[in-house]
Amino acid sequence: MNFEDKINRKNTNSIKWDGHEKFNIHPDAIPLWVADMDFRTLPEITQALNKQVEFGVYGYAFEPESYFDSVIGWMKRRHQWNIQKEWILTTPGVVSGVNACILAFTQEKDSILIQEPVYHPFKNSIKYNKRIPIINELVRNNTHYSIDFNDFENKIVENNVKLFILCSPHNPVGRVWLKEELIQMADICHKHHVMIVSDEIHMDFIFKGYEHHVLVNLKPEYQDFVITLVAPSKSFNLAAFKVSQLITSNIDFKKRIEHEYERLGFHGHNTFGLLACEVAYRSGDQFMDDVVEYIYQNIVFIKKYVEENLNQIKVMDIEGTYLLWLDMSALNLDQKSLMEFLNQKAHLWFNDGSIFGESGKGFVRMNCATQREIIKQALDQLKNAMNQ
Ligand SMILES: Cc1ncc(COP(=O)(O)O)c(C=O)c1O
Fold first, then answer.
1. Closest of 343, 316, 344, 345 to residue 328, by C-alpha
2. Residue 57 forms part of a structural domain
3. Does 320 lie in the same domain as 225?
4. Does the C-beta of 230 come closer than 6 Å to ligand 1?
5. 249 and 292 share a domain?
6. Which of 218, 252, 284 is the last residue of a domain?
7. Residue 184 burial (CB count, 10 A)
8. How far is the CA of 283 from the centre of ligand 1 (A)?
9. How far apart are CA 4 and CA 23, in angstroms?
10. Rg for the chain, CA atoms, rounded
11. CATH of the domain at 233
């Protein structure tokens, strides 16, 4: 794969590239926001999809055995996680799985714990379902984030928390949680009978020197209260297909979650999504290694550029994901003015850090899964705007 190839995504109904007017963004702003990649997916996926398109009959579909084998194979090869077909529930997106778990395992007004700054749909899902978000703030130390475990446990006890939504690896702070950190969180949850929904959608984007641990795999007893959410959508740029997996060995849990989907009338699956997922997980090892390496080199490039040219900006450490967390608080702008400056003066479109929580004020999130040429252009524009 040549990730340097610039692909014109304009006029393709891409939310990232064509959403400027809808989101009131300067028409020339370079989009470095929503988490999809500007890379073509694995060619084998496109070939398989083309064949399916040519067939021309697109009726209701179920998951073939080969799909389950492929998901099982990827988890085993890439994550040393042995799962069984019966544990897999194919879902139309990870966020839908978060919501289904909230509905299946909590009641209205129950407390649900999250760790801000964090992927903002978690809090929305809690609120939309009339549950109460409880925040265990991540602790920032210069460019590194860690967990305040005392606060984590106190918040659980004081608020009678029923469910914890974990983001692992963490979007947007870029942490790949250590085994010890994961165990400490899960043991506290176990002690206080808190269920965990572990969103591991970024599990495949791990940089040199770090290792992703599937939480439920760390101790056998975690199977009794941890539900894992994964998807090929980030890893292989398949977000539009809306295919993801909710994995639990507890068949009763699975039935309860399935029931929530049934209540909403969800049934059947997208043939193209199933096929893309199957091919990705069967044949995508080299692609995955290569794309992670390309993104890693982008990050090395950004860090060097910022160090040499943009010393008011602090780049947070990034151990995994392709989302970089940038501290721009030294510019001394309130959040609205910061976003206006980036958008109107620098013509850049980042995610506003404050959507990830109060502690995200002064920050923006930058999507690094694009061509280095685009990144260089974006950084040059930022430098010029700041110099003015
Ligand atoms: C942590 C996390 N979970 C879930 C999603 C989205 O998942 P889906 O599109 O499958 O609902 C994202 C997308 O950025 C994400 O970062």
1. 316
2. yes
3. no
4. no
5. no
6. 284
7. 16
8. 23
9. 28
10. 21
11. 3.40.640.10
- 181 and 216: one domain? yes
Per the structure, the complete domain to which residue 245 belongs is given by 46-284
End-to-end CA distance of the chain: 39
If asked whether residues 151 and 212 sit together in one domain, one would say yes
For ligand 1, say whether the CB of 75 is within 6 Å of any of its atoms.
no
Question: Taking a C-beta distance cutoff of 8 angstroms, is the pair 198, 228 a contact?
Answer: yes
Mutational pocket test of ligand 1: of 16, 94, 198, 247, the residue with most ligand atoms within 8 Å of the beta carbon? 94
Q: Per-residue pLDDT tens for 121-174?
A: 999 999 999 999 999 999 999 999 999 999 999 999 999 999 999 999 999 999
Global pTM value: 0.98
CA of 15 relative to ligand 1 center, distance in Å:
15
What gap in Å lies between CA 298 and CA 293, rounded to an integer?
Answer: 9
* Rounded distance from Cα 234 to ligand 1 centre (Å): 8
Instruction: Please check whether residue 134 lies inside any domain of the structure.
Output: yes
Give the CATH number, domain containing residue 339: 3.90.1150.10
CB 212 within 8 Å of CB 79: yes
Interval 285-294: pLDDT, tens: 999 999 999 9
Number of other residues whose CB lies within 10 A of the CB of residue 150 = 10
10 lies in some domain: no
Does 59 fall in a domain?
A: yes
* C-alpha–C-alpha distance, residues 322 and 320, integer Å: 7
Which residue's CA is minimally distant from atom 7 of ligand 1?
94
Token pair of 249, please?
């060995």
